[in-house]
Write a structure and sequence with these properties.
Elements lengths: L1 H24 L3 E11 L3 E10 L5 E4 H7 L3 E5 L4 E6 L2 E6 L4 E4 L2 E4 L5 E3 L2 E5 L6 H6 L2 E6 L4 E6 L4 E6 L5 E6 L6 E5 L3 E6 L7 E4 L5 E9 L2 E8 L4 E7 L3 E8 H13 L5 H10 L4 E6 L16 H17 L4 E4 L9 H10 L4 E8 L11 E6 L6 H17 L4 H11 L7 H19 L3 E7 L11 E8 L3 H8 L1 H21 L2
Parallel strand pairs: 1-12, 22-23, 22-24, 24-27, 25-26
Antiparallel strand pairs: 1-2, 2-3, 3-10, 4-5, 5-6, 6-7, 7-8, 9-10, 11-12, 13-14, 14-21, 15-16, 16-19, 17-18, 18-19, 20-21, 25-27
Helix pairs in contact: 6-12, 7-9, 10-12
């Protein structure tokens, strides 16, 4: 009897010891905070952040990481690893290892990957791992102080389009150099598949044209582009380069009419021919990214600085125009300070044909009410109250950030006294083309062509305009302005507006 009691006591002791061991070995997962993740300026995801056991490292769930990058996961519990599949790329994370593998390459992590209670966690510092983000073809900005992550896909296939006065559509598709692609023409659809390229899904609708829409989307690690036609009676001319294709699409009926006109019309005047050739000379356009250096411009709710957006858009405009054989100069190529008077002086000294200053608008308060595109030309009197406010905002830079030297003061007196009225009408027309082309692509509210006394436009001895591409003070538009896709649409619109201006000036 006593022996049985002893056995029972020993069994209880063993059970208690097992419980203590199990309890002590149980890994503690502690929620710390949630980070806001903004993907492509639209999708907002709550990203929980954890501390696991006694580690100092902060962790995120691999499921949440997959949600951010639209990836799929495959778990291999026997092999103790996870396959992270994103847009044709496969990355392997191994339990209790401080690296991941991609294309047989081992890439170091700041801490071990952990699998706890059948949940896999990776260190949050992976968001700052440039190798990881480059593999996924994305830019990631992790603002730890603001608990904010900005993610933007980098597309390797980019489409821009332009409709000239004769209703000929020019579509340019840029891609990685020496990309292999497949081209197909059905009854009412042009399909191009670019192999081993990446893109986030997008669609451009084109109104009042022989094309109804252009679609791009990823498919099995490739990019599929579809150009949908409104009718099948078109002629397509295709030009190929190492890094792009250019398609010229026009209706056959209009072509027949043109041939008849050209057949009946004989040009015998050699001097006239030479004159026409000289008119086709491409102009020099100076693009001015507003603000820069110690002058950030307006700052949005999420900490976006206007100067960075202006420069990003200006560089894309330059790329667009250079591909059309325009001559292009930027007043600044980097994040440097530049006095307002030096900007138009730069354009004048280089005998520029056009001067375009790029800016983001801002209201006094960060609200969702003010939004849209405005395009300005120079005038001593602002066109309305909003124009007065914008003029004040942009001109305050002179007093706040610029430290005038004696030389700059002399230059200011000369340039600021010059209101070049000869170019006001041309500037107004240029504004109209640019505003129309931007909003056709971005679908923003078009706030119209306005006039104001911007210092940055004074003294410009050529048509000069200032483009307010959106309100950085509006959190929704700030997110759009951060998106590379949106920046490209804006830049494409400005470039198309410039082209239309010159077409109508022939």
């Amino acid at each position: 009897m006593k022996i049985n009691k002893v056995k029972k006591v020993l069994v209880l002791i063993c059970l208690l010891l097992n419980f203590v061991v199990i309890s002590s070995s149980k890994t503690d997962i502690k929620f710390i905070t949630a980070v806001q993740v903004i993907v492509n300026a639209q999708k907002i995801i709550e990203l929980p952040v954890y501390k696991i056991d006694k580690t100092e490292e902060k962790y995120i769930s691999i499921k949440d990481l997959a949600k951010i990058f639209s990836a799929t996961l495959t778990y291999y519990h026997v092999g103790k690893y996870v396959s992270f599949n994103c847009r044709g790329e496969r990355i392997y994370f191994f339990y209790n290892k401080n690296f991941f593998i991609h294309s047989k390459q081992r890439i170091q992590l700041s801490a071990n990957v952990l699998n706890v209670h059948n949940r896999t966690f990776v260190p949050i510092t992976i968001l700052n791992n440039t190798t990881f983000t480059n593999i996924l073809n994305a830019t990631v900005e992790f603002r730890q102080n603001e608990n904010l992550v900005m993610v933007n896909w980098i597309d390797t296939v980019v489409v821009s389009y332009y409709i000239n006065n004769n209703d000929v559509i020019r579509i340019e598709i840029r891609y990685l150099k020496n990309t292999q692609y497949d081209y197909n023409l059905d009854d009412r659809k042009i399909t191009l598949t670019f192999f081993n390229n990446k893109v986030s899904p997008k669609e451009y609708r084109i109104e009042h044209s022989i094309i109804s829409k252009i679609k791009l989307y990823p498919e099995n690690g490739n990019v599929r582009t579809e150009i949908l036609l409104n009718n099948s009676f078109v002629q397509i001319k295709k030009e190929e380069f190492k890094d792009r294709i250019v398609l010229f699409i026009e209706e056959q009926s209009r072509l027949a009419e043109q041939r008849k006109v050209y057949k009946d019309k004989e040009v015998t005047n050699t001097a006239q021919n030479l004159s026409l050739k000289s008119n086709n000379k491409k102009p020099l356009v100076v693009i001015d990214p507003g603000h820069g250096g110690e002058d950030p411009g307006a700052i949005g709710k999420y900490g976006t600085k206007e100067k960075h957006i202006n420069l990003a858009i200006a560089k894309i405009i330059k790329e667009e125009l250079l591909s059309e054989d325009y001559k292009v100069l930027l007043t600044r190529e980097d994040d440097i300070s530049l006095a307002l008077v030096e900007r138009t002086k730069f354009a004048n000294d280089n005998n520029a044909d056009l001067f375009i200053s790029i800016h983001c608008n801002a209201s006094k308060k960060q609200t969702n009410t003010d939004h849209g595109v405005e395009v300005y030309f120079l005038s001593e009197k602002a066109s309305d109250e909003d124009a007065v406010a914008t003029e004040k905002l942009e001109n305050e830079v002179v007093l706040k950030y610029e430290r005038p030297t004696e030389e700059l003061n002399k230059l200011q007196k000369i340039l600021w006294s010059m209101i070049v009225t000869d170019y006001i009408n041309e500037s107004s027309r240029l504004c109209s083309y640019i505003g129309t082309e931007i909003t056709a692509r971005t679908k923003q509210q078009y706030r119209g062509v306005k006039q104001a006394g911007f210092y940055v436009l004074r003294g410009a001895q050529m048509p000069a305009v200032l483009v307010e591409v959106g309100f950085i003070s509006n959190p929704d538009e700030e997110l759009k302005l951060n998106s590379l896709d949106f920046q490209r649409l804006v830049a494409n619109g400005i470039a198309a507006g410039i082209k239309k201006y010159y077409e109508n000036n022939k």
